């Protein structure tokens, strides 16, 4: 709906509630919603919780156009706030790039003694999983769920289980799974996917085999899990079984199946899958099936175009939570208050790793540098600085949990494995693709990610 034009129709002033409700249902333009808000203030309708709630919800539907910012200002000024309004704002913030604000808003909701309902916690948990300190926040929310009596609500329990699984805490997720009096497909799929992404494929397969009614999500989780754990033959066998059961594959399952074909050199199966895709007119990543020729030349061309067009590459950033505070690092970071101590600690770790045979992996570094310069370039990656900070900030033997916004590089992956062996430290690293659990010199991804 285009922006509203002043003056507003007389019907809005004569029958304000009905007219505003009708306009709110149709309007998606923030400027138009602001005019409706002005009319609601003029008629006193803004003091009514029902139309005020609908206005907030409408504003939150256009977060990128300034709707969320305006909704927050409106929310702070409303005196008729109800549970629906609080849930609306928590949900909008959890869907945005401000998940920490959703948690802060929930704390304010508790201090105001506002009643909760079954939808409050799923929205809040969605925000928790996006935080670097996801685990402690989730555990606190879990205690509140029990306190408010929503632990038996399937929707809430599923959200909690999914967050534990996505945080790599499959043990906590499984305890919750076993205690749930009622499970649906989402419950089973969340647990299976959590096991698969944590490298515990045997446990995932056990649950998968016990699942009575499997859907495309169940099959896709198992197929993708097999591919991520280098079980390419098993992935194709599962893909075939899925089609036999007349479950139509989605884009993710087909992508994983093609990846398995590529690793096995299964040309005939790859052609068959390609035909399957064409018949259904499905759209996949165009990179699939393409042969990368002269990648060095292509990378230089791409970098040149990025500079010409002013495109900035997303910088790698690693976060670690210690004693309730989140600490972020970028490559070569010296902005942290303890930067000197962190760098000295990393140099100490590096000297010990070299004694154990560590040599920096620079194969993936597509830069025209001497080998010594390449080693220096990968030597101060953000996850390494986060690990060093974890060493100086926690007791020996404490698990180190790190969240990275990009994929972990080969050198940082190798370093984390060696540190877990030499220092007997468990390291849990979540990158943008999956979880890596480093224990005794091995990783849950089996070196495939």
Automatic annotation (TrEMBL):
A family per Pfam: PPR_2
One GO MF term attached to the UniProt entry: RNA binding
Annotated signal sequence range: none
Swiss-Prot/TrEMBL keywords: Repeat
Positions of PPR repeats: 82-116, 184-218
Gene3D superfamilies listed in its UniProt record: Tetratricopeptide repeat domain (1.25.40.10)
Annotated InterPro entries: DYW_dom, E2_motif, PPR_At4g14850-like_plant, PPR_rpt, TPR-like_helical_dom_sf
GO terms under biological process: RNA modification
Domain DYW: 357-449
Family membership noted in the UniProt record: Belongs to the PPR family. PCMP-H subfamily.
Protein name as catalogued: DYW domain-containing protein
């Amino acid at each position: 709906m285009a922006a509203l034009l002043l003056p507003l129709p007389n019907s809005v002033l004569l029958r304000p509630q009905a007219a505003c409700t009708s306009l709110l249902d149709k309007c998606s333009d923030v400027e138009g919603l602001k005019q409706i808000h002005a009319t609601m203030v003029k008629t006193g309708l803004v003091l009514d919780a029902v139309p005020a709630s609908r206005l907030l919800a409408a504003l939150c539907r256009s977060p990128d156009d300034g709707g969320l910012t305006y909704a927050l200002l409106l929310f702070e000024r409303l005196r008729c706030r109800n549970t629906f309004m609080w849930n609306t704002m928590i949900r909008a913030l959890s869907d945005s790039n401000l998940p920490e604000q959703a948690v802060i808003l929930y704390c304010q909701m508790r201090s105001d003694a506002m009643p909760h309902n079954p939808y409050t916690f799923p929205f809040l948990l969605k925000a928790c999983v996006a935080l670097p300190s996801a685990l402690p926040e989730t555990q606190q929310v879990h205690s509140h769920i029990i306190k408010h009596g929503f632990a038996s609500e399937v929707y809430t329990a599923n959200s909690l289980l999914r967050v534990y699984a996505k945080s790599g805490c499959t043990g906590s997720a499984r305890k919750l799974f076993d205690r749930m009096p009622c499970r649906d497909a989402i419950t089973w799929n969340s647990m299976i996917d959590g096991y698969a992404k944590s490298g515990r494929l045997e446990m995932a397969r056990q649950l998968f085999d016990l699942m009575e009614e499997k859907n495309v999500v169940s099959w896709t989780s198992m197929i993708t899990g097999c591919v991520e754990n280098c079980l390419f033959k098993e992935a194709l066998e599962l893909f075939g079984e899925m089609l036999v059961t007349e479950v139509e594959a989605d884009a993710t399952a087909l992508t994983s199946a093609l990846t398995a074909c590529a690793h096995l050199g299964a040309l005939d199966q790859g052609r068959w899958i390609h035909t399957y895709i064409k018949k259904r007119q499905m759209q996949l990543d165009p990179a699939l099936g393409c042969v990368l020729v002269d990648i060095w030349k292509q990378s230089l061309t791409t970098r040149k175009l990025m500079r010409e067009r002013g495109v900035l590459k997303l910088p790698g950033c690693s976060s670690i939570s210690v004693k309730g505070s989140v600490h972020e690092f970028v490559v070569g970071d010296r902005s942290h208050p303890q930067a000197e101590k962190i760098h000295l600690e990393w140099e100490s770790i590096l000297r010990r790793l070299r004694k154990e045979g560590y040599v920096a992996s620079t194969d993936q570094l597509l830069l025209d540098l001497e080998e010594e310069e390449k080693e220096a370039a990968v030597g101060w990656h953000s996850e390494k600085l986060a690990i060093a900070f974890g060493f100086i900030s926690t007791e020996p033997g404490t698990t180190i949990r790190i969240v990275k916004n990009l994929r972990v590089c080969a050198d940082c992956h190798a370093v984390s494995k060696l540190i877990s062996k030499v220092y007997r430290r468990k390291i849990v690293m979540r990158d943008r693709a999956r979880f890596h659990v480093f224990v005794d010199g091995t990783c849950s991804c089996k070196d495939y990610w």
